[in-house]
Each structure stands twice: as structure tokens, then as C-alpha cells.
Amino acid sequence: MKIRVLVVEDEALIRWSLRQKFEERGWEVVEAADGRTALEGFAEGLYDLLMLDYKLPDTTGLEVLRAARKVDPHAVAIMMTAYSTIETAVEAIKLGAYNYVAKPFQMDQLMHVVERALETTRLRRELRELRRQTEQEFGIHAIIGRDPSMLRMFEIVQQVARTGVSTVFLRGETGTGKDLVARVIHHNSDRAAAPFVNITCTALSESLLESELFGHERGAFTDAKMQKKGLFELADGGSVFLDEVGDMPAALQAKLLRFLEERKFRRVGGTKEIGVDVRVIAATNRDLEDAIEQGQFRRDLMYRLNVVTIFLPPLRARGDDLRLLTQHFVTRFATEFKKPIRAVSDAAYERMRAYGWPGNVRELRNVVERAVLLSKGEVIEADDIVLGRSEVHPWAWDLENMALPPEGFDFQKLRRLEYQLLRQALERTNNNQTAAAKLLNLSRDRLRYRLQKHGLL
């Protein structure tokens, strides 16, 4: 993309000299001898650099810059003047001028300043493009769904993003998009310009996880050769996403609870209390109520995480969202793989609707990606859809006489069985939750948790 420079200078010789120098570099140069002509030039598009004379026949370069910034807030300008004073220099810099040069100037020195100014322009453009991509990738529209359960979730996500709530708890099965929701909350909040730090609590051993979260002092353990800041400290002002928090070791659960209550911590091997301002977004696919009963998760930590809880419904409970998501992934991968695929056949959709989707949206994405990659026509057919082994509906099993098969067992089938039993219990009791809980031998609170988990509430 050719660099565009606007030269606003009433002396023709200076304009000519600058044009000659800039065009040697292959840049496009637009000239203006007064402020009015300069401002008219903005109708032709934006500029990478403004070269502004301070004293013009009809106005000043500062007024031109002030007006230019209304058109392009990121305009990079260099002021030129023979009337150099500290006051005008300070005024120009305050208004946003990149630099200030006094006439007469050496062309080589000026070009050095110009090159640095254009580097600033390039960096600002890259930053704007990065922000645009981030907004596109993690805007609220990045979460795709029209099912009522998803629309309710959208409302909560938007409310949470706009507020200063310090702890958010995402619950749902694996593959439902908890990572995406966490990023959407962060990037649509006042914390968007600060770091978003993501850590999976099962990816590291207990000792390494503690060091990663809270940091350590030099000499705190054998390999601690220098001080290290933890993720909470590095994310100050931003958000920390703790994925699979339900599997966090017991000793760390106590330290996390203390941090959530006080927003302070000590590095491993340290004595100094460090306070930070971070939003903690925790996520789990585990049934924490069962984990608490089994002594594997702290009840007080669960209560502390439950400031705002968002349940992500499984794909099987989202109705026509299956078709919506499928078309989204087809369009995405057809573009990526440069395939002429334009649709999915009804037979393919029927096959997909009959499947339980234990891996949820993540599994659907992988299935569609494979189908697009291997399909030979313009329409994805049923034979292009390759699903997992568990296509048989789980509620058709003979559970009393079931034996563990020699090849093992897909434990995700139990999730689909639970969903069907809950749905049928509600239907049989005409949505009376107390009666449904009794029918399933559950407490009402345990029933409501499971209904939320499966998107039935």
C-alpha cells in the first residue's frame, strides 16, 4: 500500500523540495498552500503523515491538525515553522503532533524524523487492525445460537461483561465453548485492553501450578534461580481464566479461596502480601456437588466461585442451533479449504440430529471440518458425516445386565442418558420439579443443577 503524505506549506519552494524527496521514496504526495485546501484534501481519503507549516495564510497548522483529528483521530503529524518557541512546541505536542521541526531544516535530519513518524503510523494501523480482528473474533456475536437457552445466556454474558463483577463461574459439559465465553466476557468489558491469561488447572503438577498462579521468589525451591511473577500478578487489571478448576488439587483450592476472598497472595517462598485487581473466570465440566460429597472439592470454594454462574447448554439441548452451527462451520471451512461446498443435505442433517454429540460444539466442528475437507461435491451428504461409535441412543440400553465391553466404554453415554431421564421426568410430572426430583430420587437442588447443566431450565 503506497504511503500518502499531505504537505501543508505556503512556500512553494519548500513544498517542491519535500515532494521531490518523498516521491524518490515512491510515496504519494498531496500539496496544499493554505488550511482550506488542506482540509478539502481529506475528502480524498486519509493520510499516513501530515507535514504542517505552523503559520499559514488563512489559519495555523495547529488548527489544521485539530480539524484533521476530527476526521482521523489517529493522524500522525509533524509541525514545521520558522517561529519556533517553547509555547508553540508544547501546544503542538499536546494536540497530538508527533514532532516539531524548526526552519530551516536539514533534509537528512527531517527524513529521519519522518521515517520514525511513519513507523508510528504503521504501528497504529497494526494495533487498529488487531483490535478490529479481536472485536470480530470475540464480540458477543462470536457465540452462535438462537435457542432460548442460548439467548438467556447471551443476556447474562452481556450483563457480566458490562459490570465490575470480580468472579464468574462457567459450568457445562466439555466442548460447549467455555473458553470462548470467557474471552467474550473479557474483550467486551472495561478490562479488554489489559491481559487475558488462560491456564488449564490439570495441565501442570500441583507445585508447578502454584508457581504459575502465584509466582515464586528466588531460592523458593531447587530450580527457582530467579524471582518469577505469577499469572495473577501479570494479569493485573485484566482477567484470569481458570479452566477445569473442579480438578484443582486440594491444597491449591485453599489458596485460591483465600485469594478470591482477599484479592491478595504471597509468592511461593515469599512473605510480602501482593494485591491485584483481576477478574477470575473459572470453568468446570465436573459435577461439583458430587465432588463435594466425595471430599474432592471444597464446599466453601464452590460458594465463593458461585458469585455469578453461567450454565452453557449442551448441543443436544439447543434444537435448531445444530443446523445454524453446521452452516457456520461449513462456510468457514469451505472458504479455508477453497472448496465449492454451498449446502448440507437433509439426509446429512437427519443423521446429525439423531446423534447425541458427547463432544458438543467442539465435536461438531471437527465433524464438519472433516466432511468439508473430504467431500467431492457442492453438497455435504450423509455419507460425508462420520460420527463417533456412540450413535445408539443411550436410553435404549439394558443397564441392569450391562457388562463392560472388552474394548472399553464411552462414558459420555451416561451424560446423554441423564439428559433423557431428566426430560422424561419433567414430561411425566408436567414440569413439576418437586415431583420430578422425587421420581428420580434427587433433592430439588440437585435436580435444578442437573436441569441447568443440560439446558432444561
Describe this structure in words.
The chain is of the alpha/beta class. The protein folds into four domains: 4-135, 3-Layer(aba) Sandwich (Rossmann fold); 139-311, Rossmann fold (3-Layer(aba) Sandwich), CATH 3.40.50; 320-384, Orthogonal Bundle (Helicase, Ruva Protein, domain 3); 402-453, Arc Repressor Mutant, subunit A. It is 46% helix and 13% strand. The chain has 18 helices and 16 strands. The protein has helices at 12-24, 35-41, 61-71, 86-95, 107-138, 148-162, 178-187, 206-214, 231-234, 250-262, 288-293, 299-305, 321-337, 346-353, 360-374, 413-428, 433-439, 444-453; strands at residues 4-8, 28-32, 49-53, 77-81, 99-102, 167-171, 196-200, 215-216, 228-229, 239-243, 264-265, 274-275, 279-284, 309-311, 343-344, 379-380.
Q: How are the SSEs placed, and which strands pair?
A:
Blueprint: E1 4-8, H1 12-24, E2 28-32, H2 35-41, E3 49-53, H3 61-71, E4 77-81, H4 86-95, E5 99-102, H5 107-138, H6 148-162, E6 167-171, H7 178-187, E7 196-200, H8 206-214, E8 215-216, E9 228-229, H9 231-234, E10 239-243, H10 250-262, E11 264-265, E12 274-275, E13 279-284, H11 288-293, H12 299-305, E14 309-311, H13 321-337, E15 343-344, H14 346-353, H15 360-374, E16 379-380, H16 413-428, H17 433-439, H18 444-453
Parallel strand pairs: 1-2, 1-3, 3-4, 4-5, 6-13, 6-14, 7-10, 10-13, 15-16
Antiparallel strand pairs: 8-9, 11-12
Helix pairs in contact: 6-7, 10-12, 13-15, 16-17, 17-18
Number of strands: 16
CATH homologous superfamily assignment of the largest domain: P-loop containing nucleotide triphosphate hydrolases
CATH architecture of the largest domain: 3-Layer(aba) Sandwich
Shape: elongated
CATH class category label of the largest domain = Alpha Beta
Question: What fraction of the residues are assigned to beta strands by DSSP?
Answer: 5-15%
> Structurally, how many domains make up the residues?
4
Q: What does the radius of gyration come to?
A: 30 Å
